[in-house]
């Protein structure tokens, strides 16, 4: 009877303790449930910078080598002679497109061939991948060089081109396109601010110069003015 009395006497305290523990657990659970969406929302806002940085820091599996080549200040791409800007891209129009991987591998072989043989006329190649397809930006010496490479059956382009044309007649699951622009000497504007050498600035035969004198303004770089028409209202072009 004494033991039962002691147990009954301690029961209110035990109940209070259990209620406090349950309350604390509930509060913690609520805080966690509130914190997770906030964290995800914050991450989504900064997914262009936060996620890649955290991934690199935590895994050490990705290193941006271009960071080591950044040129401080405003630089203009200068070259003599005409040239061609060539854009080519592709996209999968079906989640189960059977050609996308094959064509990607074929294009990689083409770019390697062009890089190893600069006499073919390709000055620079850079490519970009995204959720709606991929884009390759190239610079060529001339349209003649570009067309000669594309139609030469001994090069790595003609075979996949013919194969893809045949597949395109049977299915619309895979789309591809290209655009080519002939650019006259000095009739263009190419500026890079705090960037590594890329695109025209990284093409064979190009040089990167400080944006001073006639290269100060966009119109000046395009050969239309002496560069004194810089938009001074946005600040001094002193870097």
From TrEMBL:
Keywords: Membrane, Transmembrane, Transmembrane helix. It comes from the Eukaryota. The chain crosses the membrane at residues 31-54. Pfam families: Monooxy_af470-like (PF13826). InterPro entries: Monooxy_af470. This is DUF4188 domain-containing protein. It comes from Seminavis robusta.
